[in-house]
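quick q for whoever's on today - can somebody do inverse folding on this one?? i tried earlier but teh output was garbage lol. tokens:
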């Protein structure tokens, strides 16, 4: 009798287990179907914060001017300086981090350093680890520095390399000497890569194996990076119809993306010469300006790219599915009147601060576009012609009413937030699900 009861109980237990497993399978199928019908957003649709900022765009097409440091400070360029926000510190004004001798058109940060480049090949380095050290300044005696990129030096464990893409059809490769006297970083030229066209952007994979470069033609140039530190051209790809202005690598170093003037953002797998995916700006003719992948260790593998004005696009970098791509409009806001949907983190810039103080000023300033054209018209007898070109550039760069020029975009270092800049603010969005993961890992108190 007891054995029959045990056998019956065992059968009931197995039946219950099978039913439970069936319910779990059905639940997963339903969730999968719901996701396909209405995919969840990748970022919060409403910004987490809108931070007042002044960001100087001095070149119509170079729009990679917003970066995040290892300790989650937001860096951007304004006037002749690199400025910083600390978005997690309430009631703190933006401040000047690194004064410069020139108006920068490009900047980058990594390895505890920030670098800025100018219209007449000026170059500056500033140490974030030793803020009291004097900045390093030099000139390449070439054309405009289009972009800068830090990467690992295969011959050094502490001193990185800096790639400088210049309009003179070159990429100059420098070793950054960080152990210089007084803590001031210095540069040692180790290589120059020559091209048949001006190069607008280049980056090295996180694995330090491949360099990708894009320039004023649709071609994408790939180089092998040897352990000895040399470069060997291995492939030329093409899918866009116009110039490329931004490149980026996925955290695993297996995929890279290029944003182009024709509005395309193309993604490749390093194992194939055919694009893995292609995305386009919303109206089809607005240029794609800046592309970034989420950093290593992020809760979600994402890719973002910006349009020339108004919008950023967010892509699931595990599937690269068009159906899950999210488009967000960057809200308009001045530093004086932040939008009510998200309060600012600190008071508006003081009207009493002088224009060149460490703070900001709303006092009208002469158009910064004149700085762009100064190298072309250095003599006083060209003043009228320079003014004509200055007004023309200002008219071209001025957005229509209700629109905003995008100055750049980036991820926070933990991948939990996305930042996009205009000329008047920095907007912060939350990556959905990132906070839950951080709590699970004990990163949130």
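ok took a stab at it. sequence:
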């Amino acid at each position: 009798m007891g054995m029959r009861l045990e056998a019956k109980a065992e059968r009931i237990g197995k039946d219950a287990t099978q039913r439970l497993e069936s319910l779990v399978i059905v639940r997963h199928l339903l969730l999968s179907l719901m996701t396909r019908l209405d995919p969840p957003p990748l970022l919060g649709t409403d910004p987490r914060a809108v931070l007042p900022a002044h960001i100087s765009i001095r070149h119509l097409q170079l729009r990679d001017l917003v970066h995040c440091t290892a300790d989650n400070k937001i860096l951007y360029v304004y006037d002749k300086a690199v400025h910083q926000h600390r978005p997690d510190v309430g009631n703190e004004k933006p401040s000047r981090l690194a004064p410069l001798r020139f108006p920068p058109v490009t900047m980058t940060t990594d390895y505890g350093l920030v670098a800025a480049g100018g219209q007449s090949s000026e170059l500056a380095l500033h140490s974030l680890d030793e803020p009291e050290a004097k900045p390093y300044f030099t000139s390449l005696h070439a054309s405009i520095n289009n972009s800068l990129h830090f990467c690992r030096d295969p011959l050094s464990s502490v001193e990185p390399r800096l790639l400088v893409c210049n309009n003179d059809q070159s990429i100059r490769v420098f070793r950054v000497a960080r152990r210089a006297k007084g803590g001031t970083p210095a540069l040692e030229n180790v290589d120059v890569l020559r091209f048949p066209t001006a190069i607008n952007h280049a980056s090295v994979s996180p694995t330090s194996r491949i360099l990708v470069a894009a320039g004023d033609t649709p071609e994408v140039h790939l180089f092998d990076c040897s352990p000895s530190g040399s470069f060997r051209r291995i492939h030329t790809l093409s899918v866009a119809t116009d110039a490329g202005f931004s490149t980026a690598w996925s955290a695993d170093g297996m995929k890279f993306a290029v944003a182009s003037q024709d509005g395309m953002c193309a993604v490749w797998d390093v194992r194939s010469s055919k694009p893995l995916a292609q995305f386009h700006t919303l109206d089809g003719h607005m240029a794609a300006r800046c592309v970034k992948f989420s950093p290593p260790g992020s809760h979600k593998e994402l890719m973002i790219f910006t349009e020339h004005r108004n919008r950023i696009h967010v892509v699931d970098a595990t599937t690269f599915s068009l159906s899950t791509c999210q488009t967000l409009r960057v809200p308009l806001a001045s530093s004086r009147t932040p939008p009510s949907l998200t309060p600012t983190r600190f008071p508006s810039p003081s009207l009493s601060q002088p224009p060149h103080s460490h703070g900001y000023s709303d006092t009208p300033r002469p158009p910064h576009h004149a700085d762009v054209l100064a190298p072309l018209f250095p003599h006083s007898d060209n003043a009228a012609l320079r003014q004509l070109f200055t007004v023309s550039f200002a008219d071209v760069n001025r957005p229509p009413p209700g629109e905003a020029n995008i100055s750049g975009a980036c991820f926070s270092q933990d991948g939990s937030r996305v930042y996009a800049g205009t000329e008047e603010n920095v907007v912060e969005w939350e990556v959905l699900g990132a906070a839950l993961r951080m709590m699970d890992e004990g990163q949130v108190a």
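fwiw The first strand starts at residue 49 and ends at 52. also The radius of gyration is 25 Å. so keep that in mind when u check it
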